[in-house]
Design goal:
137 residues, 3 helices, binds carboxymethyldethia coenzyme *A, eight-stranded mixed beta sheet
């Protein structure tokens, strides 16, 4: 069902200062920054080998990432796995009794189709399933 780790989402208070670790110290390059109003975040993708780090900065105190930072501080927020067929993957998760946050795929950053699984049914890890979007590379 799962291909590779598409990205690891890291919640940060401020992308501009957080990104320096990855660029100035680790020597990585930023692939793009965009705002995702639907999710109340600004995101920045940094390719790392075959995967990516996604820095997530809240744009609204009521958003999921703002709440996460308020409760737990900055840090790893979610892991995103790439699937070939998201509708099919969600059907399997549903059938196996996992709690779906998104019952159907929706559009996420970079134009990818995404859906989240609730951390209470996945061992405390917020999991995003995403269908490969060439534009997101
Ligand atoms: N990872 C692991 N556990 C998490 C979590 C996370 N990122 N966020 C919340 N939780 C835990 C909380 O600690 C809490 O556990 P306890 O009850 O044991 O304390 C539980 O989940 C419920 O938390 P909550 O505060 O009551 O619920 P929230 O209103 O914060 O919602 C969640 C949590 C996961 C349902 C919500 O954040 C969500 O729908 N996330 C999916 C969308 C999203 O995260 N968007 C931002 C990224 C978008 C992008 O990548 O583009």
């Amino acid at each position: 069902m799962i291909g590779k780790v598409n990205h690891i989402g890291i919640a940060v208070r401020d992308i501009e200062s957080a990104v320096k670790l990855y660029t100035d110290v680790f020597g990585l390059l930023v692939a793009g920054t965009e705002e995702v109003p639907d999710q109340k975040v600004k995101v920045c993708f940094i390719p790392v080998g075959e995967s990516r780090v996604e820095l997530l900065e809240p744009t609204d105190p009521e958003g999921a990432v703002a709440k996460f930072i308020a409760n737990k501080g900055e840090g790893i927020h979610h892991i995103a796995y790439e699937v070939e067929d998201l509708v099919k993957a969600l059907a399997i998760c549903r059938e196996k009794g996992l709690r779906l946050i998104d019952e159907t795929p929706r559009r996420g950053a970079g134009g990818a189709m995404i859906a989240f699984l609730h951390p209470k049914s996945t061992g405390g890890v917020l999991i995003e399933l995403c269908e490969h979007a060439p534009a997101a590379d």
